[in-house]
Write a structure and sequence with these properties.
It contains ten helices and seven strands. The chain is of the alpha/beta class. It has one domain: 2-enoyl-CoA Hydratase, Chain A, domain 1 (Alpha-Beta Complex). It has a seven-stranded mixed β-sheet with strand order 1-2-3-4-5-6-7, with helices on both faces. It starts with 11 loop residues before the first helix and ends in an 8-residue tail after the last helix. The relative contact order is 0.12. One of its GO terms (biological process) is fatty acid biosynthetic process. InterPro entries: AcCoA_carboxyl_beta, ClpP/crotonase-like_dom_sf, COA_CT_N, Malonate_beta. This is Biotin-independent malonate decarboxylase subunit beta.
């Protein structure tokens, strides 16, 4: 029996340390390297010296690993040119190590609203690079996504989450292509009330995403539990099938839903009941 230690309350750097074996954490391009976005200060935004992206090398159960952790408290975890390049390059280098005979597990702590609007096209390009890097890496090593809270994972980075070999979430997590405020802005409050928190979590929360088969492990907000879930996913190795390879199933299921009908909590769960399973 241990005292519960919240993973959600940790910053990105502490999350990376918590996932890696004790004492193995080594940061690459950290705050003292001063690699920050050149685009924020001209817009009156104070940049962060690591651009809100932590890259750490270490081990998981003695095996080489890289953990990429997004700092959700900086610009909502949004992705810009520098942060995106750090993430994509780290994933690519891990894949190169694997191909060179040095297996390296990849873990992505995804706490992000998607593209950084202040960097627009540069951010979008970097997210595309991240997607391509994940697709390459997952063929040779497990790419494990972790969504804990409180920011959630939205926008183009929700696609990155879907591309992962395995996805670990807490019930406090949220996962969706569009965030609640974006949906409300575009479709109106009658379609989606961004202030209705219970409704939001019933639509995009970790529990419902788990029941729909969109994630692989639903765990409590507890450091040892999340660490154990990551280790179990790593032990499974490269899966035989990926969710993104089951596009026919998802399209057929989605097309069976009458979009003229207002979606309600439970709609997605009913639609995708008994959905994707790796085995």
């Amino acid at each position: 029996m241990h005292n519960k230690e919240s993973f959600i309350e940790l910053g990105a750097r502490q999350r990376a340390k918590a996932i890696l074996d004790s004492g193995s954490f080594r940061e690459i391009l950290g705050p003292f390297d001063g690699v920050e976005s050149p685009w924020l200060e001209p817009q009156g935004i104070v940049p962060q010296s690591d651009d809100g992206m932590v890259i750490a090398k270490g081990t998981i159960q003695g095996k080489d690993a890289v953990v990429v952790a997004i700092e959700g408290s900086f610009q909502g975890g949004s992705m810009g040119e520098v942060s995106g390049a750090k993430m994509a390059t780290a994933i690519d280098l891990a894949a190169e190590d694997c191909l060179a005979g040095k297996p390296t597990i990849v873990v992505l702590c995804l706490e992000t609203g998607g593209v950084r609007l202040q960097e627009a096209n540069l951010g979008l390009a970097s997210i595309a690079d991240i997607h391509a890097a994940i697709v390459r890496a997952r063929e040779v090593t497990p790419v494990i996504g972790v969504i804990a809270g409180t920011v959630g994972c939205f926008g183009g980075m929700s696609i990155a989450a879907a591309l992962c070999s395995y996805l670990v979430v807490t019930k406090e997590a949220r996962l969706g292509l569009n965030g609640p405020q974006v949906i409300e802005q575009e479709a109106g409050i009658r379609e989606y009330n961004s202030k209705d928190k219970p409704f939001i979590w019933q639509m995009t929360g970790g529990e419902v995403r788990s029941r729909c088969g969109f994630v692989d492990k639903l765990v409590k907000d507890d450091v040892p539990e999340i660490k154990k879930a990551v280790e179990e996913c790593a032990e499974k190795g490269v899966p035989e099938h990926f969710r993104t390879g089951c596009i026919d199933y998802f399209l057929e299921t989605l097309s069976s839903y009458d979009t003229a009908e207002q979606a309600q909590p439970g709609t997605a769960e009913k639609l995708y009941e008994g959905g994707f399973k790796h085995d």
